[in-house]
TrEMBL record:
InterPro entries reported in the protein's UniProt record: AAA+_ATPase, ABC_transporter-like_ATP-bd, ABC_transporter-like_CS, ABC_Transporter_VariousFunc, P-loop_NTPase
Domain ABC transporter as annotated: residue spans: 10-236
Domain of life: Bacteria
Swiss-Prot/TrEMBL keywords: ATP-binding, Nucleotide-binding, Transport
A Pfam family this chain is assigned to: ABC_tran
Identification of the protein by name: ABC transporter ATP-binding protein
MF term (GO), any: ATP binding
Species for this entry: Streptomyces canarius
Length: 303
């Protein structure tokens, strides 16, 4: 089921947020829907607004314009808190608690607590239950925080760059457990990440933020199918831009390469390749808004 009445993991209408202290407008006019049952990559350059969006969804901040709904309910309410888990970058845990105390706290605070899942997540990292959290490495603390989040059996799991401090093996293991969780229980996952190859392998929906605005909210496969990397003579550039959206282009002499979103069939003499999701995301992240010149090309033009 699609459309405005279909169940959604996240739905934003005219969403805006400004931090009071330094007055920066972190999000503006955000309008998007993430359907139920998706693993969503939340992508954007540093400062684009990813953490702010996740904090709003987790109920730690309140929107100051428009609206954000999580699982079709208001963030921060008792209902939303029971159904949504947020793992933030700072992973607040009590350093004097042992790992076992921490999991017990999770059990006391959550009626839907799944001890087996929480303990398995910790055990897979070879973390002894009797050690104090303050004595763990940052990566081990990440695993404990994730155990708390997974033990809650959330319907929506919000992860704010959770794996930056995990070693590559642990990272692979955690990603595999997350994918298994999503496949078995249909858990919605929204994962903010800068690791594009990982996104390519795991995510089926993309939310891309630029300067606090949503630039893409789209099915990953649809993105792959609608974009192409074209190589050909630069004298075709104007005709191309007239018919299709040129996300990013680079010229070397008379030869140009462009990432385009196709609107209809291609005309002209182009070598066409289907891009990976990673190439598309890099294209959007490097470029200005679609249709503008990429930063590299702008520099060449100014020289
Ligand atoms: N506590 C705060 N007080 C004031 N401004 C803030 C605060 N936190 C974030 N901002 C500003 O809000 C904007 C969005 O920041 P946010 O942390 O949401 O971005 P991000 O996409 O998560 O970045 P990163 O990839 O670096 O983690 C930035 O301009 C940032 O400077």
């Amino acid at each position: 089921m699609t459309g405005p009445d279909a169940p959604a993991a996240l739905r934003a209408t005219g969403l805006g947020f400004r931090y009071r202290k330094r007055g920066g407008r972190a999000l503006r006019d955000c309008e998007f829907t993430v359907p139920n049952g998706r693993i969503t990559a939340l992508v954007g350059r540093n400062g684009a607004g990813k953490s702010t969006l996740l904090h709003l969804a987790g109920g730690l901040l309140r929107a100051d314009s428009g609206e954000l709904r999580v699982l079709d309910t208001a963030p921060g309410t008792a209902e939303a808190r029971a159904r949504v888990a947020l793992l933030t970058q700072d992973k607040p845990l009590y350093p004097r608690f042992t790992v076992a105390d921490t999991l017990l706290m999770g059990e006391k605070l959550n009626s839907s607590w799944d001890r087996a899942v929480a303990e398995r997540t910790v055990r897979e990292g070879d973390i002894p239950l009797h050690v104090r959290v303050g004595e763990l490495s940052p990566g081990q603390r990440t695993r404990v925080a994730l155990a708390l989040a997974l033990g809650k059996r959330p319907e929506l799991l919000l992860l704010d760059e959770p794996m930056a401090d995990l070693d590559p093996v642990a990272r692979g293991e955690i990603m595999a457990s997350l994918m298994a969780e999503a496949a078995e229980r249909g858990t919605n996952i929204v994962l903010s990440s800068h690791v594009l190859p990982e996104i390519e392998q795991t995510c089926d929906w993309v939310l891309l933020l630029r300067d606090g605005r949503i630039e893409l909210s789209e099915d990953a496969e649809a993105l792959r199918e609608s974009h192409a990397v074209l190589t050909g003579h630069t004298d075709q550039a104007d005709a191309l831009a007239g018919r299709h959206t040129v996300v990013r282009r680079r010229a070397a002499g008379r030869q140009m390469t462009a990432l385009v979103r196709q609107h209809g069939p291609l005309r002209g003499d182009w070598h066409v390749e289907r891009p990976r999701l990673e190439d598309i995301l890099i294209g959007y992240l490097e470029a200005g808004a679609p249709g503008r010149l990429a930063p590299a090309e702008r520099t060449e033009a100014a020289a």
